[in-house]
Amino acid sequence: MARKLKLSEMPEAEISAALMQHGGDVTRAALMLGVSRTGLYAHLAAQTKAAVAVVVAAPVAAARVNVRIKEMKVPAQPVESPAPLLRAVEARREERRASREERPSPLGESGPYMGEIFGVHGTRAPRVGAPVSRRHIRVLAIGDSHFHPGLPQTMRCMALIGHHAAATRPEHIVHIGDGSDWNSVCRHTRNDTYKARVKPSIRQDLENFRENWDMLNAPMDAAGVTSSRHYTMGNHDAWLESFEDSTPELRGMATGERDSILARAGWTNTAYGEFYFLGGVGFVHVPLNLMGKPAGGATPENSIATQATHDIVFGHTHRYNACRRVKMGFANQVTVVNTGGAMPEFYVGDYAQNTQGSAMTSGVLDIDIFDGRIQGNRLVTMRELETRYGHLVP
């Protein structure tokens, strides 16, 4: 009977192949090799002590790595030829890049996550539209606009905002979501009720969304505005996903049409609750708490700023507000800004008649970002937009 090889006697190629086959999962690789998980961990740690430190902390220059290896009195090995664990992790990273599963971190590429090292896949990172920079980044933020087939005034609001973008030419334009009410798939109005009789059809909602979106983009396109354009899905937008989830036969029909309307006008989008970063500032329709629920309360900006670790721009409540919270540490603070709404002045939807009333804000925000923070924001009200650009809108 052949003697069973000890782990130290096994070829490195065999260990590497086992790790690669199981995506870096040490437990499964150990079972395949017929060795203990503890022993495999110890073996890998002995060979990759310096290299794993690079993976977990952050990539550093090769010279600095060699200095650390000498200090630790560990036999040096070239950074270009990592140990089996690192090769397995890098192979998995290449697979993820090829399949477009991985997105860059807002802080840049800094090596694999710990979850990747130990075989946990499917991690999600925020979308980054512009990295942190000392250079000024100007952003036009558009709040909830809640288009509705029975509210044609929203088209004038969109045209005014489009002319403002054409006049100011910001580098980035972000619509914070809830572009439409999407009452056709409203979950709060059952189809067997009297109120449901006035609900629009999905086709009417989609056509209305398209018409309003054309009004927003037309002035910018005519003026040759090259700003990046991004849309962060809101809770009303997510109703379409929920409707299609409960009606699998229609999956992709309504959401696909909505997304194509955005894409044809040059807009990218992120899912409801997902952050989109510009210069280190996160844009999202509304931050979700640890239970996956929208951050709420009478002044959600306060609670968000207390918990947040980076500046945030959000909407959802239709009330403009800005809050800054100083944190422990040197020059450490967080600013949270609520965009308010971009609906016709004094308009209040049926769902907010008894709760918000005249507390709602109508307009857009001009935001300045640099050094990874919101350095300034200015509310341009819908009335001011009308005064500036009303003569340009028929």
Q: Which regions contain 5 or more consecutive residues with pLDDT less than 50?
A: 50-63, 72-82, 100-122
Rough outline: globular
CATH topology of the largest domain: Purple Acid Phosphatase, chain A, domain 2
Under CATH, the homologous superfamily of the largest domain reads Metallo-dependent phosphatases
CATH top-level class of the largest domain = Alpha Beta
N to C succession of SSEs: HHHHHHEEHEHEHHEEEHEEEEEH
What's the alpha carbon Rg, rounded to whole Å? Answer: 26 Å
- How many E strands? 12
- Helix count equals 12
Q: Determine the structural class based on helices, strands and strand pairing.
A: alpha/beta
User: What does the average pLDDT come to?
Assistant: 81
Cross-sheet strand order for the largest sheet: 1-6-7-8-10-9
Distance between the termini: 92 Å
Largest sheet, in brief, is: 6 strands, mixed
Relative strand content: 15-25%
- Just name the CATH architecture of the largest domain: 4-Layer Sandwich
